[in-house]
Design a protein that fits this description.
With about 240 residues, this protein is of the alpha/beta class. It has two domains: about 140 residues, TPP-binding domain (Rossmann fold); about 80 residues, SIR2/SIRT2 'Small Domain' (2-Layer Sandwich), CATH 3.30.1600. The strands form two sheets. It has a six-stranded parallel beta sheet with strand order 3-2-1-7-8-9, with helices on both faces. It has a three-stranded antiparallel beta sheet with strand order 5-4-6. Helix 5 runs parallel beside helix 9. Bound molecules: 2'-O-acetyl adenosine-5-diphosphoribose. 2'-O-acetyl adenosine-5-diphosphoribose (OAD) binds next to loops.
């Protein structure tokens, strides 16, 4: 009767799940990394060199994210969490907050969140204003060292220990809308496999690590994810 509680579905999500909510991905044609240099806007060194440019980049993304509405794929994952007989954990690389807007609760933001500001001096965190400025002071220590709470290249993603534990107890690992270019996230499928956990990839096209998945569902997330969730919830 309680067997279901041993079920744990761990779902890694990336920019592709938010594409149909109008938010651009990074590596697709015309994506964010075709318009901006990673070194300039997504590294600590870039921030030190030109904080105004970096704040401007994330202010623009925050403005878009605030307006964005979750799509059928986000909603299907929230439904899965609410109705599945067991645990559902979303590990997201996305910083847009759309999983929470759709109603998901068990969400780990391994690359941070646009909605949070971080003090680089004392590590205090608070709700980011819509427009962050380099002159903003930390409300806790007063330092003028305010930055978006985004994990940049060269920094350690959040929750790695928790992720490791989750992979150990997972009975199914799914990867949705991520190209498999950025580690450590891109390595989770290999780890899940090593632990004997079945793996499924749900993406527009085969990702870098596609051969490591046991199962693959190709197509737009708003179609593939609700169909996959319906299968999982079938009595
Ligand atoms: P990418 O832009 O690298 O990959 C997006 C993936 O989504 C691609 O494989 C697309 O084929 C797929 N895709 C696009 N539209 C889709 C749709 N409608 N339905 C399903 N799939 C679709 O984005 P990520 O893999 O998330 O990190 O990128 C990983 C990290 O790299 C990001 O978190 C970010 C970036 O640099 C940082 O900024 C630290």
């Amino acid at each position: 009767m309680f067997a279901g509680m041993n079920n744990c579905i761990t779902i890694l999500t990336g920019a592709g799940i938010s594409a149909e909510s109008g938010l651009g991905t990074f590596r697709d044609e015309g994506g964010l990394w075709a318009q901006h240099r990673i070194e300039d806007v997504a590294t600590p060194e870039g921030f030190t060199r030109d904080p105004e440019l970096v704040q401007g980049f994330y202010n623009a993304r925050r403005a878009q994210a605030v307006e964005a509405v979750p799509n059928a794929a986000h909603s299907a994952l929230a439904k899965l969490e609410a109705e599945f007989d067991g645990e559902v954990l979303i590990i997201t690389q996305n910083v847009d907050g759309l999983h929470e807007k759709a109603g998901s609760q068990n969400v780990l933001h391994m690359h941070g969140a646009l909605s949070v500001a971080l003090c680089a001096t004392c590590e205090h965190r608070w709700e980011a204003p819509l427009v962050m400025q380099t002159s903003d002071k930390c409300p806790s220590c007063g330092a003028q060292a305010t930055r978006p709470d985004i994990v940049w290249f060269g920094e350690m993603p959040y929750g790695m220990e928790q992720i490791d534990e989750a992979l150990q107890r997972s009975t199914l690992f799914a990867s949705i809308g991520t190209s498999g270019n950025v580690y450590p996230a891109a390595g989770f499928v290999a780890e899940a496999r090593r632990l004997g956990c079945p793996t499924v990839e749900i993406n527009l096209e085969p990702s870098e690590g596609c051969s490591l998945f046991d199962d693959s569902r190709l197509g737009p997330a708003t179609q593939t994810v609700p169909a996959w969730v319906a299968e999982l919830l079938k009595p």
